[in-house]
Amino acid sequence: MATPAALPPLPFNPSRVRSYVLRLPLFTRLVLLAIILFWLFELQTVWSVVQWGSLIPEEIGIGTMYRLNTYPFIHVGFFHAFLNLLAVTPLLERFEAEHGTLTAVALFFGPLSTFPAGLYILFEKFALHRNTAVTGASVWVFLLLGSEAIRTFKSNPYFSLGPYKIPTWTSPLFACGLVSILVPNTSLLGHLCAIFVGYLLGLGYLKVLVPPEWGLRWVEGKLNLLGRLPHYVSVDQKTYGRYGVLPTTNAGGERATPMSYLGSSQRLASIRKLRSNPHFLFVHLPHILSFICIVAGVVWLLLLPLNDYSRQTYISENALLPGQVHAYFSGSEQHIFRGYKKELEAILTSQTPEGQESRSDEYTPVVSDKIQSILRAAGLKVATQKYEYTSSGITHQGQNVYAIIQAPRGDATEAIVLVAAWKTVDDELNLNGVSLALTLAGYFKRWSLWSKDIIFLFPPDSKSGTQAWIDAYHDMQPAFVQPLPLKSGALQGGLVIEYPFDHRFESLHILYDGVNGQLPNLDLFNTAVSIAGGQMGIGSNLQEMWDHDDSYERRLQTILRGMVKQGFGYATGAHSSFMPYHIDAITLQPKGEGWQDEMALGRTIEGLCRSLNNLLEHLHQSFFFYLLMQTNRFVSIGTYLPSAMLIAVNFTIMAIALWLRTGYYAGSKQSIVTPSASADEKKEAYVETTKSDASTAQPAIKPDTNSIRERHLALPLTLVVSLHLLGLIPLYIFNNISHQYYPSATYASIVLNAVLPVVLAASLTHGLTTPREPHQYLLIKSFSLLVLGLFLSTLATLNFSLSFMIGLLCTPLSFVNRIDPQTTSGPVRYVLSVLGLAFLNVLSPPIVLLGACWYFGVDVETVLTQAAFGWDVWGMWTQVVVWCVWWPAWVIGCALLGFSLF
Amino acid sequence: MGLDRRKAAVFGGAFALRLLLLVLFPSLPDLLTGRVEVSTPVTSFKRLQEGLFLYTRNVSPYDGGVFHQAPLLLPIFSLLPTSQAFLFPTVVLYSLIDLLNANALVRISESGWAVSGRSYSATRKHIRWDGVTVAAWYLFNPFTIATCLGRSTAVFTSTGILYAISSAVTGKAFNSMLALGFASYLSIYPALLFIPLMLLCYDQRAQTAKSCPSTAVFALQHLAIFLLSIVGLLGVSSLLIGDFKAFMSATYGFQLLVPDLTPNVGLWWYFFIEIFDSFREFFLGVFWLHLASYMGGLTIRLRRQPLFVLSSLLGIFAVFKPYPSISDASLYFALLPLYRHLFPLMRYTFFAVSALLYATLLGPAFYHLWIYAGSGNANFFYAITLVWSLGLSILLADTIFAALRDEWEHDNPGVRGKDVKQV
């Protein structure tokens, strides 16, 4: 151990301060506490404690007599309170230790407060006709100084200062003078009154006020105060000396004494106490710490919507200049828009067979040709791309049409994308959106100010089309997606236009979540909000919060909705596919019934394109990790990350504690039967064999140096690693079977999940011939939680919300243990473990999935098909986290409970 | 002796696992080859491909400043079919090299030099793993597998070093020097292992032979063999390349002067990006001196355990080398199981392993945030490389402490089980 045998003695011995503080008697403690409490109370602004309790001569009446007693406890500020505390503590402690607690109570709540106060009021009010309020414990300081001075005077009457002899009883007067010179706002008169009463006390004139000793003794004896109250000083034990009667808390023994030189605070004492209580240190403390971490993590998240923790959004990239340009998209462009819309509508009616209304909005080759011809007529370069994806037995295919405006002032190294999908995210026909994009294409082509190429992309749907296009744009496309015949420069930003209805709209709903919880740069979102709101007067919404009144609940709801979307990691719109390529993109959805028409949307998009056109480099200034709670408020990663990290850290703490427990501390069952006194020695024996102390009182059980007590790591390591690998099987199954089997696969997995841990536990208990030690269960849990904490903290940096959600769902695993058959009797054990298993099964991945589906009112098959589609097409990683991180940890948690059945 | 079944199972399993990974994830080798944690500028397989392309077209492979590896690798790899079209033969070659390394480890372990030497024998020497277990730790280490599939040429250096050690402990001092010469020829730093390896050879000779050879003569002999082997290899290389000066500056000059600051798991790149150019030479000297200085100190202090000095130096190289990768760490982790008898004396294993695990997971995540997502920056990744180095350093310091403690207990049998204080 790193206990230094001898440190150079400090001039100021910290251990003495510690023991002094620890041995303060009861009344002194209470007074100190009261002073601190009143000071803390004064911090609030509603009710002035000083006004209430200080000694104001004018205010003293029959009803306000309490002031005569309260004023010593009340201070006007931190320094006032602090200095008085420092001064009064030794004096009061001395007094109490000498006279007993009861006497001190009687005197200090009685005459020693009221007499100086009365004297002061007498002088102040009637002699000087002033009204200066006094407050603070300095009255007691000077009072006690005065009485001490008289006692000194009795034994040692004079200071000799050269030829002069100064009587020692004057020392408080000097002190009083010095204080009133040095410290501003002190009441000289008040102090003098106090010193006067102190002299009286010292000279013994106040003895009549002291309660008779026999009475105090009787009270003390009847109430057994000495036995009941800690740090109580008895009246009649004063003969034993000042400290003799005080209980010592220093029960650590001699061994630890050298440690006390290392530090000065009580913390050290409490740590030493912990060292002597290994059961608490290794079994209870980690649970407490883990629990605190979880609670702190959740509370942290709940604090985020408050103004103190969130920030107003701002445009960080100066080059964007949102809303600084005039938008010219108006007037005659509306006629062009209507013309395009009519043409497309005509095609739609013509492709509807007679008497058949369904699927009239299909994206047919005719539509594609029409779009291409319009774009060509506007003078753009047009190209198409065919793609075909198969996922869960469903084939998604289509043809992207896109066209490029080459920048008149650029060199084709950078580009902006405008996307208008034929079908919106909600599978509605996006006729207005497509017409608007076509109009904008013709309109933008006529402008000469573009310094970046503008690409207009018309995918047939919002799910797969953009993904195929963007993959091919970066030459990362799979075999069944055609490469792009026509390309431009690096994409700087993407805007998706949706306008699926015919009436006018009220506000813009902005979608910003990307695949795997990646977000676009906050500047892009801010620019959109600022252009829509500032220039066009269009309000913005996010996360489908239509009536956001900026209250705490709404903000929290917005954050939580954002977190759920981010956590699931699916593509929320056509813009989501851009995010993995580090292209910032958002979707603009008009919502509501209002007076904004398609031209306002067009002007907003024009403004956004102009802003993006200004960019000198890729958006990088603002945040990539944020939680939005309102269109103009957010929290950044530095503020919110600790909440997920705390949740992840709780697992790590538990893992480390379990590891330490297996090495240092033999386990709970022995310590229960051994008295706590020998726990210390026993711990010593296990600290580590090499360190086992020769002076330990039990040399018989001291292990031989060569007989190493080691952890058996093979089984726990194998189990944890193989379960994590086993997670690949459900991952494969849930991503590759046909969609109609998903519900049955989910139910099958629920059953398997319920059975697997028990089977695992049974086979490990009965199947293996090697004798297993109890610490292996702890090691299994330790490794499992270590891996879980590891993955979750890594995940928190990539996808905060997912890490938070999984972490929260896994929290019971920190507290699940194998119930020891030696400490718990059979039936109780069975009941407990079965209950625990039932509870854990409720939190199993497939049941949570079912619960979520039921809550959101969606079909399991749809969700799983979507998830498989995400895995196959978007590169979504949520399932990997579920099956390879969450599920193995969950199975081990259940298996630990299962072990207690056998 | 017959075929050792366990050994065959472990070797066969490791080989099958590598092929299985290749079959299941055909894109894995290319992914790993591109990772900065696996491939450094001096070991990258991609750069080897480039050099090979130039070499097979009769252009100097060092033209263009991409290829910085020893020239003898080129004729070996030109015998293989191109890895673009045929992934299989290269992976099989690398897997076989892993098996060779494992075989060397088995021999080192079976010689028992890790637990008892000429003038020293560990107090807990009955706690040990046999050769096959040590080989299994090496072969199934994920870092080894990643290096193998990433086809980093550092494995050839590892082979050289491991064969040098295994020859030394089996008494083939000549072979040992040749192997070390080969390793030093491939990448300079193994030359720093010369002195401890020579001491190991000397101890082996002194233990088996009746009469001790003269120390000076022995040292000079082996130095000569070592130098001659390097000279011979360089001679063959210059025959192969022609332009001796260009190849020297492109390979050894590159490794010594560290001009390429591509991120890696080490500590040099970030430092030399940040340093002012005028101080570059100075700090280059300081860094190399620092790396070399461990050799002297450890060799003197742990004179009685030369094999342990070799292992610890390999660990130190994995931290402080100019272009370290996980293959260096995997070589160190390969030798650690030889010291199973020291594990009970180690104190911070769990924390070191946790730090390494955290670094293993967070490193790629932060690299992704920096390079691909664009939402992080270089400091993220560098912080994690610091954690990685910290984990390795804790492990190193802990094993060296354990070795010293063991030696101390060996010298003072009375103090076994007593508390010690590390100062």
Automatic annotation (TrEMBL), chain A:
Keywords: Membrane, Transmembrane, Transmembrane helix. GO terms for cellular component: GPI-anchor transamidase complex. The chain crosses the membrane at residues 20-41, 73-92, 104-122, 166-183, 189-210, 280-303, 640-660, 713-733, 745-765, 777-796, 831-857, 877-899. Its main location: membrane. The keyword Transmembrane helix applies. Residues 64-206 form the Peptidase S54 rhomboid domain. InterPro entries: Gaa1, Peptidase_S54_rhomboid_dom, Rhomboid-like_sf. GO terms for molecular function: serine-type endopeptidase activity. The keyword Cell membrane does not apply. This is Gaa1-domain-containing protein. It comes from Aspergillus homomorphus (strain CBS 101889). The lineage of its organism: Eukaryota, Fungi, Dikarya, Ascomycota, Pezizomycotina.
From TrEMBL, chain B:
This is GPI transamidase component PIG-U. The chain crosses the membrane at residues 9-28, 72-97, 134-165, 177-202, 223-247, 267-295, 307-325, 345-367, 379-404. It is found in: Endoplasmic reticulum membrane. Coiled coil: none annotated. It is a multi-pass membrane protein. GO terms for biological process: attachment of GPI anchor to protein; GPI anchor biosynthetic process. Keywords: Endoplasmic reticulum, GPI-anchor biosynthesis, Membrane, Transmembrane, Transmembrane helix. Pfam families: PIG-U (PF06728). One of its GO terms (cellular component) is GPI-anchor transamidase complex. Belongs to the PIGU family. Pathway: Glycolipid biosynthesis; glycosylphosphatidylinositol-anchor biosynthesis.
